[in-house]
Design a protein that fits this description.
This protein has 214 residues and is of the alpha+beta class. 44% of the residues lie in helices and 12% in strands. It folds into 2 domains: 82 residues, Roll (Ubiquitin-like (UB roll)); 91 residues, [2Fe-2S]-binding domain (DNA polymerase, domain 1). Strands 2-1-5-3-4 form a 5-stranded mixed beta sheet, sandwiched between helices. α4 packs across α7. It starts with a helix and ends with a helix.
């Protein structure tokens, strides 16, 4: 190997070594800084929570950050309530708390001790369906069925809202109507998304039950 070859090798080694050193510094530097800045983590203390779900008391020991949705599904094993977007945007996790519909993914379980929580399992069973469940079957208000528990819980609570005179964003005058209009029902159910697009059948099922109540 001649002098020129030796010089070429040296340059190649210098360039490669410098690049490797720079890369390692850029990767290790921020990680090391974050590591130095954060003290060792400590798991939060578990808390005892007693939830009343579908008329039954459940005594749980939970991380205080546990959502009501995860408490229902992972700890009480009521999996009818679905986890969809987990950001309160799709309505798949809708349950009723003291008669009001809420997105269970957006609230902590510890906030609902003493509340009356109703899930789809508490509305009816296959041998004794709630009228809304029966109407969804009758009008084919579902396709994949994933959003259906949330749709039904929301629809039941929504008709109770209308009966109680809770105003909507469409028009307060519509509340007094014995049969809610399509516009009224669509607006009130707008927080529940059906990715299959079974909206017309869902509205038919709700109007069926609303007419029976009227």
């Amino acid at each position: 190997m001649g002098p020129d070859d030796a010089l070429s090798v040296s340059r190649r080694h210098i360039v490669a070594g410098g690049a490797a050193t720079a890369t390692a510094a850029s990767l290790a530097g921020p990680a090391a800084a974050v590591k130095d800045a954060q003290p060792p983590g400590r798991a939060p203390a578990m808390v005892a929570v007693r939830l009343k779900v579908n008329g039954k008391d459940s005594a749980l020991t939970l991380d205080p950050r546990t959502t009501l949705l995860d408490a229902l599904r992972e700890h009480i094993h009521l999996t009818g309530t679905k986890k969809g977007c987990d950001h309160g945007q799709c309505g798949a996790c809708t349950v009723m708390v003291d008669g009001r519909r809420i997105n269970s993914c957006l609230t902590l379980a510890v906030m609902h001790e003493g509340d009356e929580i109703t899930t789809i399992e508490g509305l009816g069973q296959p041998d004794h369906l709630h009228p809304m469940q029966a109407a969804f079957v009758r009008h084919d208000g579902y396709q994949c069925g994933y959003c259906t528990p949330g749709q039904i819980c929301s629809a039941v609570a929504m008709l109770d809202e209308i009966r109680a005179g809770v105003p909507s964003h469409v028009s307060a005058d519509l509340v007094a109507a014995p049969q809610p209009s399509l516009e009224e029902l669509r607006e009130r159910m707008s927080g529940n998304i059906c990715r299959c697009g079974a909206y017309s059948n869902i509205i038919d099922a709700i109007r069926d039950v609303a007419g029976a109540r009227a």
